[in-house]
Amino acid sequence: MILSEAERQELERIAKKVRYLILRTVQHSGAGHIGGPLSAVELLVALYFKALRIDPKNPTWEDRDRFILSKGHAAVGLYAVMALRGFFPLEELLTFDKGGSRLQGHPDMTRLPGLDMSSGSLGQGLSPGVGYALGARRLGKDFHTFVLLGDGELQEGMVWEAVHTARRYELGNLTAILDYNGLQQYGWRGAGRGDRKDPWEGLPPARLFAAFDWRVIEIDGHDFDEILAALTLARKEARGPRPTAIVAYTLKGKGLSFTGGKHAWHSKVPSEEDVRRAIEELGLSPEEVPL
Amino acid sequence: MREVALREVFGETLVELGEAYPNLLVLDGDLANSTKADKFEAAFPDRFLEMGIAEQNMVGVAAGLAHLGFIPWLSSFTVFFTHRAADPLRMLVAQTKANVKIGAAYSGLLTGYTGKTHQDVEDLAIVRAMPEMVVLAPLDAVEARAMMHWATAHEGPVYLRLTRDPSPVVLPEDYRFEPGRVLELKPGRDLALVGTGVQSARLLEAARLLSAEGIEAGVYHAGAIKPLDEEELVNKLRPYPKVFTAEEHSIYGGLGGLVAEVLGAHDPKPVVRIGIPDVWGESAPNDWLLDHYGLSPRRVAERVLKEVKG
Question: What would the pLDDT profile of B45-100 be if each residue is shown by its tens digit?
């Protein structure tokens, strides 16, 4: 998929609105995650506005592509993207984390149509993704299954059970996207903190997926051209035996001067002033900040 | 009395169900020759998925398949579902109401000389506390088969507690399973014995021993730990001044806990819980284990006599 300049600008504009919505939603609810959702914005926008075969008016369409947000703590980012894509009204974002809301702190498929799996406890999303891809093969359906993972959750052993099984069952119709922002809740890379060092030093995830004979594509996770080229390539070889791992290098808290690369923003609640500053930095007009 | 192992019933009934439900799949965790899910593989090789020794992933894959309309029946040992795979069982299956059927083989103490690592006597406490989960523990071969037919027709997650070794066939062939029912296996007068799973058959035998001592014990079987018709349980136990529960499970959180909770709320009376006290199991012959933990008919009868006569 080759983007025209106008298309690229449109996606970048949407990404800015999503960043604002993430901050505004968490500021309003008084709880939520910031850093993880911000690193995944371009990946989610590219999926929901270009790559995924979906119909927001018919979220349970049986031939839709399946998408699982394995890093469930980025839920607010997914909700912002789904709202902009028309799955539900923007105003509903203000119910995030409120009692009775369809927008739970972590994605709940029993409440919000359009979610293909519940998630939150890390490391579990790829396995139901294997189930969807395996089921699609058995049903002779050509929908594709995408699972968005964080690099932190790769420390869960269950991920590698799924990685192994996906290759063994030759699930070329399964694509894992790694939002490799390199920062976890407790800031593994902090200097002078005991044994803290990069958990993947000498063991880059790209090489780990390759060791299980997955097709690995490494990209800049904030570059729409690279993201969409990788997603297109993944779908193109869906009939083949090798699942695809798109290792997307990202920045936690990407897009705002005060959140970028700062693990303190993993789940910090922004103030009204932070939201005002975000609107200014993102260059959004008053009609682009509806909430 | 004729004896049949519930695992044999599991394998045979999977084949029956495979014929009736084209969307039924079996996922195995490298134990099908123990759980007897291998019978299904022999009949439907294309619908048998060997997921290897990776139970968390097996449970997660089943959730995905279930949300596409398949009916996955899972084959592994109890302990690997409720302990190793507790988190995916909770988040991916129970919390999403996935139509997954858990064939929990080798429950309780009699697991074939495997010892405490494999003796899962905490499973009922764990799965019963999970909302949306139906929890079944069949009395015998007839009820195991009936429960599997019911579970497959039921939309939603079901946990079926199965056992390894032959146990008496108690129920008539035309028995129909209804979730929640409390079965009266034998009427009584002086006290009630309440069991679940194959332990209920041992209680029948214990009641015969007690009869010889002049004590008439009623014997009741709760095949469904959840849902359970609490009103029926209370009504059936109402005539008895004292109730004994017995199960191949910890005395914490299983049938004994359940009966004590229900009676405590609606008809308080003494409940003696026979089961595994707060200790781990060990590997030993079946008869030794049942005697050691007070679950053999003779030991149950002795315990009742001690409690009643002092």
Answer: 999 999 999 999 999 999 999 999 999 999 999 999 999 999 999 999 999 999 99
Q: HSE, CB side, 13 Å, CA atoms: give it for residue B237.
A: 30
Residues of B in contact with A108 (CB under 8 A): 95
A216 exposed, middle or buried (CB, 10 Å; 0-12, 13-18, 19+)?
A: buried
| Structural domain harbouring A31 | 5-288
pLDDT in tens, B152-198: 999 999 999 999 999 999 999 999 999 999 999 999 999 999 999 99
CATH 3.90.1640.10 applies to domain B3-168: no
Strand order in the sheet with A215-220: A66-69, A145-150, A174-180, A244-249, A215-220
Task: State the nearest Cα–Cα gap between B53 and chain A, in angstroms.
Answer: 9
The whole-number pLDDT of residue A193 equals: 65
The strand pair at A145-150 and A66-69 is best described as parallel
Which CATH code is given to the segment(s) B182-309?
A: 3.40.50.920
Distances (CA, A) of A61 to A115, A249, B71, B258: 12, 32, 20, 42
Chain B residues in contact with A163 (beta carbon < 8 A): none
Question: Are B92 and A127 a contacting pair at CB < 8 A?
Answer: yes
C-alpha distances in Å from residue A284, one per residue of A94, A208, A218, A251, A276: 19, 40, 31, 21, 10
* CB contact (8 A) between residue B68 and residue A132: yes
By C-alpha distance, the chain A residue nearest B49 is: A169
Q: Which residue of A has its CA nearest to B96?
A: A110
Can you tell me the distance from the alpha carbon of A216 to that of A130, in angstroms, rounded to the nearest whole number?
17
The domain ranges of chain B are 3-168, 182-309
| CATH number, domain containing residue A93 | 3.40.50.970
